[in-house]
Design a protein that fits this description.
Layout (H helix, E strand, L loop, with lengths): L2 H17 L3 H12 L7 H27 L3 H27 L22 H10 L2 H17 L7 H27 L7 H28 L5
Helix pairs in contact: 1-7, 1-8, 2-5, 2-7, 3-5, 3-7, 4-6, 4-8
């Protein structure tokens, strides 16, 4: 397996998920708008909390794989389900864009209904992530499927590090860009440009999802 490939695809998969609007994006905008000094760093702080939680979850998933997922059939099913679910999410993103269901305008009044986590951005990154059902579903199926396909496991520590840092780099780049954009006076994204980005991300989800689904059949994972 190409280690560079592991890092790049982990980065791209994370980036596609980060770009899609969700609670963590809204929280980042909210905290940035409330910050009087160095608000452009809020995205980094939020991702630190988000990454800390994901690192713990990755270790828990690896423990579960080590003890309970020793059956090749189960590992193949994880790849199939995770791959097709990623395809489904990609199709839904494209569908929502084409039907004009996604609005990413950044307005202060739209972010004032967030309660709690108002003081600590790192803690907010943890709690907002935990409160998002999609985040749990993503890791339980898609994230685990990726880990199985790319042999992210305890006896391959370099794979764990490349997967983790690649994944968090995708989040970090996007959320830092968001907080910097908002802090330095941005009011809204160009809808056409953002929609094109979302469609490209949706297409990547579909293609990579098909790869995750098909690869375990061609190259069955080893226990």
């Amino acid at each position: 397996m190409n280690l560079f490939e592991l890092f790049i695809f982990s980065f791209l998969v994370a980036l596609t998920g980060a770009i899609s609007p969700g609670p963590l994006l809204t929280f980042t905008i909210y905290k940035t708008l409330k910050s009087e000094k160095k608000g452009y760093l809020i995205g980094i702080l939020v991702v630190i909390g988000h990454a800390a939680l994901e690192f713990v979850l990755i270790l828990l998933l690896l423990t579960g794989v080590s003890f309970f997922l020793q059956n090749i059939t189960i590992l193949i099913l994880i790849g199939l389900i995770g791959g097709f679910l990623l395809c489904f999410f990609g199709i839904m993103v494209i569908k929502d864009v084409l039907k004009n269901r996604i609005n990413i305008e950044i307005k202060k009044e739209d972010t004032m209904d967030i309660k709690g986590y108002s003081r600590n951005s790192i803690l907010g990154g943890i709690l907002v992530s935990m409160s998002n059902p999609y985040w749990w579903l993503w890791w339980a199926v898609i994230g685990l499927s990726f880990m199985v396909n790319y042999e992210v496991r305890f006896d391959q520590p370099i794979n764990i590090l490349l997967f983790f840092f690649g994944h968090e780099m995708g989040d970090l780049i996007w959320y830092f860009a968001i907080s910097a954009f908002v802090y330095f006076g941005g009011k809204s994204f160009n809808p056409k440009v953002f929609n094109i980005i979302l469609i490209l991300c949706g297409l990547f989800m579909v293609v990579f999802g098909l790869y995750l689904a098909i690869n375990p059949l061609i190259n069955p994972p080893t226990t």
